[in-house]
Amino acid sequence: MTENLRLLHVHAHPDDESSKGAASTAKYVTEGVDVMVATCTGGERGSILNPAMDRPDVLENITEIRRQEMDRAREILGVRQEWLGWVDSGFPEGDPLPPLPDGCFAALKVEDAAAPLVQLIREFRPQVVTTYDENGGYPHPDHVMCHQITVAAFEAAGDPDAYPGLGEPWQPLKLYYHHTFHRERTKALHDEMLRRGLESPYADRLKDWKPDPENERRITTRVPCAEYFALRDQALLAHATQIDPEGPWFACPLEVHQAAWPTEDYELARSVVEPALPENDLFAGLR
């Protein structure tokens, strides 16, 4: 049945598909699952986080360059990818926060912003959909909006009365939230670095990061995918404007990641089928 399985990841910006769930994506692609990435925005207002790419020529062509980066990451992961067509909102900073730019993704009405995703779900017909939790994974307005439109589209896509004219209704069976950067995982990486006599890049972060057992309990599904971590890293590096090869993303060696935390973790947020928790497969109960 694997060749009939379809997985849709809904992400806010190009590079999110490589920093969250990329190894499990590669695992499912290898198994024959048809994987689609829906990218809500073009990442036009994202900061250039790699000093080597912080150049005037890059800034002038950031929209096209980020599309080219997405193409490379898509090829590495072996997925299909669609742009939903919305404009990056940027990350507002200041006190008070400035207003969102006119016409940006996070300033839209949820029902309007969800329309192209409903259409894509009805065309692609995934059994499983993933996105971020209600906090967006971190409080970027585009990530929060990505959560909101994905939940709305998951609920509307199978309703024949919702969004008429956007395709035949299709009800996905399971909706997951990514839980990539949680404290338990970070602490395991930190401890493994120290065990190997290495300097941990996580010490300062953990110092002020209090345990949150309630958040840890939200994880229902841990997908073993350590053998695909190297491919995940290749996909990350394809986003050269966002990822510095000498930066914090790669301060922890690959073998430490594989030994300390060999899974990517998810929360089953909605399910049309009866789940048997905990799970080790996003398609548990479907094959």
Give the helices and strands, then pairings:
Elements: E1 6-11, H1 16-19, H2 22-31, E2 34-41, H3 56-60, H4 62-77, E3 80-86, H5 110-113, H6 115-124, E4 128-131, H7 141-156, E5 174-178, H8 183-195, H9 203-207, H10 213-217, E6 221-224, H11 229-238, H12 254-260, E7 263-271
Parallel strand pairs: 1-2, 1-4, 2-3, 4-5
Antiparallel strand pairs: 5-7, 6-7
Q: Helix count?
A: 12
Class based on secondary structure composition and strand pairing: alpha/beta
The multimeric state of the shown protein is single chain
Question: Which strand order does the major sheet show?
Answer: 3-2-1-4-5-7-6
Strand coverage percent: 5-15%
Shape designation = globular
The low-confidence runs, each spanning 5 or more residues with pLDDT under 50, are none
Helix-strand pattern = EHHEHHEHHEHEHHHEHHE
The termini sit apart by: 6 Å
Proportion of helical residues: 25-40%
What are the key terms here?
alpha/beta, 12 helices, 15% strand, globular
Question: How would you sum up this structure, described in words?
Answer:
The chain is an alpha/beta fold. Helices cover 37% and strands 15% of the residues. The protein has 12 helices and 7 strands. The chain has helices at residues 16-19, 22-31, 56-60, 62-77, 110-113, 115-124, 141-156, 183-195, 203-207, 213-217, 229-238, 254-260; strands at 6-11, 34-41, 80-86, 128-131, 174-178, 221-224, 263-271. It has a 7-stranded mixed beta sheet, with helices on both faces. Helix 4 (62-77) packs antiparallel against helix 11, helix 6 (115-124) packs across helix 7 and helix 8 packs across helix 12 (254-260).
